[in-house]
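Obj: model holo form, ligand = magnesium ion.
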Amino acid sequence: MTDASTRALAAAAAAPADIAAAAAALEAGALVAFPTETVYGLGADAENPAAVAKIYAAKGRPQDHPVIVHIAPGADLDYWTTEVAPEARALASHFWPGPLTLILKRNAHIPDAVSGGQDTVGIRCPSHPVAMQLLQAFKGGKGGVAAPSANKFGNVSPTTAQHVRDEFHDEVGQGNVIDSVLDGGSSQVGIESTILDMSRLATHGPVLLRPGHITAQQIAGVIGAMPRQPDQAAPRASGTLESHYAPKAPVALLPTGDIEKVLAELKLRGRSAALIHYTPFALTQANVALPAEPKGYAYGVYAALRAMDLEQVDVILVEAPPADDAWLGVNDRLRRAAFGSTGIIERFLRS
Ligand code: TXA
Ligand code: MG
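Output (holo structure tokens):
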């Protein structure tokens, strides 16, 4: 291990006393926000329906949207699930701990609350050192922590502890809705886990419900079958709603070649704009330049959307990334962030 990665891990690890307190809070039925390598999660004891209900209330999330159960490395998958195909086990042993969620048939004793009434459960073993510390401490490593992203329903997911505090303000702190926020620095991946439905393998094959850092090609490399796109009967995933991950300001995705022209025309009409881009432009307005490659872009995109939202502009313009497979996860999130703002530029330029 290099010095740099040792430092990164040391910086990301939490104090044992903080971990013990967070684990105890979870065991007592409270909510704890914690870092994962994808985004920060808002956790509750997955086997305590009253605690899980608090997540839905805090997020303002509809009751029928299932949450992912996070388990410690080496935890017993069969405790949570049933009918696990060898392909699913192969994926778990290859990619866990890591940013892959497997949808599997739910074991009968797992509460309805985590599954939104469906007969499946989403399971993931995260690789962030603080998440692993917490999961190992919670119920001696045998528990499951139900955790959606730690944001209000539909908003941009948090990739730092500060984002979580910004999202929930005075709901955080002992005796409040969220007992504590564990700080593990910036989430290394930056967009949510890849979700793969392995619960209907015999009839539908593997189905990619949400693209992410782990790609369909990598999955095919392990199980020898390319995941399919979701069909009508596929399990529901809220991250697949057309509008999601959205800042308060409207978002418009634009091809590189249109950016300068649209900025100039908006200015003429007295409209303010911020820009998230990866091509260098000569700019006078608020902007964030992200790396021109998908992993670095994913790492920064949610923080960029949040930062540009604070600028109180009329619209956040986003330079549309390339359309190739490597950008699938990023493009998926950007498309949903922009969905509710369809036609906004045309409206501004007409008025
Ligand atoms: O990276 C991640 O997955 C983050 C971190 C915190 O682990 N979590 C996350 O959770 O993104 P959330 O709730 O924001 O998104 C989870 C998605 C939702 O779209 C949910 O509907 C879907 O997973 N999901 C969970 N359980 C499911 C199930 N049994 N069947 C279908 N979809 C499921
Ligand atoms: Mg979410």
